[in-house]
Amino acid sequence: MKLNESFYQGNNVVKIAKELLGKGLFTKINNKTLGGMIVETEAYSHVEKGCHAYQKKKTIRNEVMFKHGGHAYVYVCYGIHNLFNVVTNEEDEADAVLIRALEPVKGIEWMKKNSNTSNEKRITSGPGKLTKALGIDRSHNADLLWSEHIWLEDLGIIIPKRQIVSSPRIGIDYAGEDALLPWRFSIKGNVWVSK
DNA sequence: TAGAGGATTGAT
DNA sequence: TCAATCCTCTAC
Questions:
Q1: What SS3 class is residue A124?
Q2: How far apart are CA A168 and CA A105, in angstroms?
Q3: Residue nearest to nucleotide B5 (CA to C1')
Q4: Which end of chain A is more exposed for a tag (fewer CB within 10 A), N or C?
Q5: How far apart are CA A42 and CA A85, in angstroms?
């Protein structure tokens, strides 16, 4: 069952980042369904410096973060990688969750092809890699997450609290003290979590 | 309008 | 540890 609009529109992005663990992320490309279970996320909010929309500063790139929860925010990082985020909260509240790793579920052979590797462990264990495997690029930016081409699904899996590990987010040293916030979440012991 | 740099990755 | 690589953002 696809996650509905209300799931995304809560005002606590950290809570939603944790709830997204165990949910499914899927795309439909060339009539093939690709995707997996989310095992690693990071929360970003306009109140802290790690966020593109810090202090609610709207730019061409982050415009989608200001839409209501349930939109996809896809942007290019380091000129090479597409990174996929789930926009949360109400309109103009500019919060989002970065999806960092998946456990492959559907279309694994096709995802290997997209990733140009035969090593299953390497196709979705990182934010830049999973977008390549699922065929997500900037054409998906601003798409709604209950559309036909890209969507999130409730897999009926509950991740108990004790199975959720939190740690500081990756690659945002420029955020100063906010880089220390333990807003990265992953499933304890899951082998698909990024390195 | 030019210059710096980034929510990463894989090879050295 | 370092290069790849392309916008976006900022300052002139």
A1: coil
A2: 27
A3: A78
A4: C
A5: 9
